[in-house]
Amino acid sequence: MSNKIQAIRGMNDVLPAESSRWQYLEHVLRALLGGHGYREIRFPVLEQTQLFKRSIGEVTDIVEKEMYTFEDRNGDSLTLRPEGTACCVRAAEQGGLLYNQTQKLWYMGPMYRHERPQKGRYRQFHQLGVEAFGMADADIEAELLLLCAEFWRAFGVEDLVQLELNSIGSSEDRARYGVALRDFLVPLRLQLDEDSQRRLESNVLRILDSKDPATQALLHDAPRLTAFIGDESRQRFDRLLTVLAEAGIPFRHNASLVRGLDYYNGMVFEWTTERLGAQATVCAGGRYDNLVRQLGGSPTPAVGFAMGLERLLLLLTDSARWPAGIDDCLDVYLALVGGGVQAQGLLLARQWRQALPTLRLLTHCGGGKYNAQLKKAYGSGARHALILEGDGPQSSIKLKALTSDEPATELRLADVVPRLRQLLQAH
Ligand code: ATP
Ligand code: MG
After folding, report:
1. In angstroms, what CA-CA distances link 334 with 18, 193, 408?
2. Nearest 5°: phi and psi at 305?
């Protein structure tokens, strides 16, 4: 038996070989969000359990089966956030951002769900969430979808994702539809999967996103939500589809898309891909005009989405769409050969970095012979090595290309910065 402690199943480390990919994803997303005037909001990973029960809905997969809930030392029931929308509403309301205002916000970070781990599905995973408050019309819905399309374009995967959307109407529309759906399903009760049988009484619309094939087959002939949607929702949805068509964003109206959380109303959407098997949804969201009030604020229209960053990462890897050079993280390896040059090397490295703020220079620590240090330089991925050798005033500096066989050339100290600047520009 091993006595090494392992990570929790479904909760992954990101090792250095992969972290540059995460940084690239995050950097591109942040830049685009900033470019659209969206501002970051941060909130804790732990919240009162009640926040999620009241927003996501008691009778949903997340609340019934997936939450990490525990009592803390005071006996309070706390939950590791399974998603960000409820937290964002809580934080924005508590921070006084919502009353009589519009807000365009985003957040990025880990979420927690106790699911069966597999490719694209983990127990700790990461989302980018984008939420817009105080805007009731289709223009903000369109902006969010265009923003998603910009993400796909920036990552070069626009041909690999498809937009599906639907309008699920107002809560009154859904209540009328719920009655009709229930009337249709009651005679078929025994043919439904176990969860759906229970939900027939407690939350009949959730049956629509059952993953059980037999249940899905029964639903084929069920009444359609679309037929129950009121004029206002319908018109708003039509305006959205018009903008999307004018903006040249292809979409599919999927009348059976309802999403797995209770707080949505009006338009809902998913961006899916065929490249990730059953974990097909990369990004999903919709309008949730009642949530702020439900959580104690004044009525505030809202719309948002969350993107699964692991799935985006898998999509880029699977389709080999990472930009060239993404894994390069060093320009120069500074070797320090000989007993007297350690302190001098650290100081010179500091000067060079200050003079060239984009320079990525790693200083060798730990001593060793010339050949051993050069071997490390080759292994580091740097394109060049600087070799400081000798003892105090007698020291010399050489530059060596690591990607070719060219011999090292001696440099004057004063020439190092101009030479490095040239090399940085050439790359
Ligand atoms: P799924 O149907 O795949 O379970 P979901 O409807 O539960 O997804 P949402 O709650 O809408 O997902 O979360 C938004 C996005 O977060 C998903 O589209 C997906 O990209 C990502 N996501 C959700 N759950 C996980 C998970 N366990 N592991 C990795 N990514 C996830
Ligand atoms: Mg899920």
Report:
1. 24, 64, 13
2. -150, 165
In this prediction, residue 417 carries a pLDDT of 98
DSSP for 205-248, written as a single string: GGGGG---HHHHHHHTTSPPGGGG--HHHHHHHHHHHHHHHHTT
Find the mean pLDDT for residues 32-39: 98
Yes or no: say if 150 and 33 are a contact pair by the CB < 8 Å rule: no
Cα(361) to ligand 1 centroid in Å equals: 39
CB of 273 within 6 A of ligand 1: the answer is no
Q: Do 86 and 117 touch, CB atoms closer than 8 A?
A: no
With 90 as the cut, is the pLDDT of residue 136 above it? yes
pLDDT at 391 over 90: no
On the CB side of 99, CA atoms within 13 Å amount to 7
Question: Atom of ligand 1 at shortest distance to CA of 278?
Answer: 3
Count of other CB atoms within 10 angstroms of residue 425: 7
Query: Could you tell me if 344 and 387 are in contact, meaning their C-beta atoms sit under 8 angstroms apart?
Result: no
How are beta strands 103-112 and 39-40 bridged, if at all? Answer: parallel
Report the alpha-carbon distance of residue 342 to residue 389 in Å, rounded: 10
Put simply, whether the predicted model's pTM sits higher than 0.90 gets the answer yes
- Does the CA dihedral 382-387-388-390 come out positive or negative? positive
386 strand-pairing partners: 334, 399
The pLDDT of residue 1 is 58
As a whole number of angstroms, the distance between CA 285 and CA 305 comes to: 4
> Each residue of 175-211: pLDDT tens digit?
999 999 999 999 999 999 999 999 999 999 989 988 8
pLDDT digits (tens, 9 = 90+) for 225-250: 999 999 999 999 999 999 999 999 99
Residues 6+ apart with CB under 8 A from 297: 89, 93, 98, 99
Q: Choose among 128, 66, 40: nearest CA to 313.
A: 128
SS3 at position 133: strand
Task: Using CA atoms of 130, 267, 123, 329 in order, give the dihedral in degrees to the nearest 10.
Answer: -40
198 C-alpha to ligand 2 centroid (Å): 19
Separation between Cα atoms, residue 427 and residue 71, nearest integer Å = 55
Question: What is the Å distance from ligand 2's center to 68 Cα?
Answer: 14
Q: At 308, is the secondary structure helix, strand, or coil?
A: strand
